[in-house]
Amino acid sequence: MEKLRFAIIGCGQNAHKHGEASLMLPQLELVAVCDLDLVRGEHFASLYNAGRVYTDYRELLERERLDLVSISTPHSSHSDIIRYALNCGVNVLSEKPLALNSKDAEDLCLLADSLTLRLGMVAQMRYNPLVEMIQEAIDSKALGKLFLGSVHMLWYRPQEYFDGSWRGTRLYDGGILYNMAIHYLDLLISFFGKVQLAYSLSDTFTHSIETEDTLVAVLRFYNGSMATFEGSFSIYPQNLETGISVFGDEGSIVLGGVALNSIKTWRLKDNKILPKVITYDPLHLKDLCFRNMMMDFCNGIINNKPTKIDAVTSIPVLETIELIYKTLERDNLCQR
C-alpha cells in the first residue's frame, strides 16, 4: 500500500488524535513533528515514533519531503501555516477552523485548487454512523419536507482548561462556535442547507475568559426551515448531552447521549429506513469517527478523489458562525 509521508504541526491536546491515527493507518508514515516547545515536541515524537522534531514549521516544511501535514495549533495561526504548507507543495489537513473568517478560508481553497493539492478541515462528526444514517434518510426523502431542527451542546470545561492557554481569548480562539460548536452547526447545515438569517444571545457566566461560555441562536435556512442552537461549557459538573434533532412532515429523528452516540427517537413514515445500531460506546465512537475521517482523506490524496472533508465544504459553517457573531455585535451596539 502506498504510504504518505506525514508530519504534524502543533503537539498539544488535539494533536494526539492525529498521532494515534498515524499508528493505526497503514497509509501514514509519521516522519516529523513540530512544536514551539521542544520538550513537548520530543515527548510527542517518542509517543508516535516520529523521526525528527522541529520548533519552526517553516523549517519542517522546507526540509522534509512530505505528502501530508496536519495542523493543530491555535486557531488564529491556521491560515498562515496552511498557506505556507500549500506553497511548499504539501497537502494539508487542518484542525477546525480552517480560518477565523470565511474570506481567508475561500482564498485558501482557491490556492489549493490552483496548486492541485488537497486541503481539508477536520470534521469527524460527519463520519458518525448515526449521523450518516440521518443523512441517508434526508437524501432519500424519508423524512419528507424538513421544517425544524435543533442542537443542544451542554458541556463542562473547568477554568483550568483556559488558564495559561490561548483558549478563551478573542484573538487566538474566536469563541465557543469556533472552538467547540462548529462540528454541530456543520451537521445542521449538512441536513438543512445554508443559513439565511440568525438571531443570537450570548454571555459569560462561569469563566474568567474573553469569549462567551454560553450562546443560543435561532436560525432560518434558505429552504424556509428553522433550527435552534443551544451551547454552553458551563454545565456543572461534567458534560451532560450532545444532541441534534431533525423534523420533517414524514419523520422525526433525535440523537443524544454525551457524544451524539445514541438514537433517542427514530420515527419515519412506513419505516422506510430502520437503524442498524441504536447506541455506541462514546469512546469507541470517538475513535471510529476520527479514524474513518483520516482514512477517507488519505485515500482521497492517494486516489485523487473527493472526500467528505474537502475544505470547500467547510465554508458554509464558517459563514454561519460569522453571521451569528455579527448579530451579537449588532445587538450589543443597539443596547449601548
Briefly, what is this?
The chain is of the alpha/beta class. It has helices at 15-24, 38-48, 57-63, 78-87, 102-114, 129-139, 176-192, 282-303, 315-335; strands at residues 4-9, 28-34, 52-54, 68-71, 91-94, 119-121, 146-154, 195-203, 214-221, 226-232, 241-248, 251-256, 262-268.
Walk me through the structure:
The protein starts with a strand and ends with a helix. It is built from 9 helices and 13 strands. It is globular. It has a 7-stranded mixed beta sheet, with helices on one face. The model has no long low-confidence stretch (mean pLDDT 96). It folds into 2 domains: 4-122, Rossmann fold; 125-289 and 317-335, Dihydrodipicolinate Reductase, domain 2, CATH 3.30.360.10. Helix 4 (78-87) runs parallel beside helix 5. It has helices spanning 15-24, 38-48, 57-63, 78-87, 102-114, 129-139, 176-192, 282-303, 315-335; strands at 4-9, 28-34, 52-54, 68-71, 91-94, 119-121, 146-154, 195-203, 214-221, 226-232, 241-248, 251-256, 262-268. It is α/β, with parallel strands linked by helices. Helix content is 36%, strand content 24%.
Q: H/E order of the elements? A: EHEHEHEHEHEHEHEEEEEEHH
Main β-sheet description: 7 strands, mixed
CATH fold label of the largest domain:
Dihydrodipicolinate Reductase, domain 2
* Helix percentage range: 25-40%
Low-confidence stretches: none
Number of domains: 2
Strand order of the largest sheet: 8-9-10-7-11-12-13
Number of strands: 13
Counting DSSP H or I runs of 4 or more residues, the number of helices is 9
